[in-house]
Specification:
By secondary structure, this protein is mainly α. The two termini are 19 Å apart. It has one domain. It is built from six helices and two strands; from the N terminus they run H-H-H-H-H-E-E-H. The radius of gyration is 16 Å and the shape is globular. The chain has a two-stranded antiparallel sheet with strand order 1-2. Strand 1 and strand 2 form a beta hairpin.
Amino acid sequence: MIITFIAVIQDIRDFKISNKLSAAGIAAAVGFMIADCFMGGDVTEELAGGIGVFGVLYMVYMIGGVGAGDVKLLTVIGLLLGKHIIWITAAAFAAAALWGITGMLFHAIPRRSVRVLEGYHHSLHVIHFSVAILAGEVSVLCKMFMMY
């Protein structure tokens, strides 16, 4: 969750999540998976979570639905939390939809030129999706901890 919090700060400040943060997150996830393997653990769930969310969100990125940094951030979270990434992603999209609809109703979301398709830009309402990712992550992790 620390990586997500840092990503939110970067996204709000620069409208960009740095590749260095994503690389550090991937390195940490790989380190945890290697340690888990040495202790006899199975990391297929984490690999499936990371690769799966990357594959799905890359298609959303290609049509301009999310930024590349958001895809990389959710990939890192998937590599760390495995199957829980499904619920985090669903909660993030729900939070973003609620935020977006509310913001547009009250004219509180700015417009920005966004690449919609290759070579085509359009002025769209934009939000910092990393904030929605953080909200999704917090809600799912709270639910996980309440179960134990």
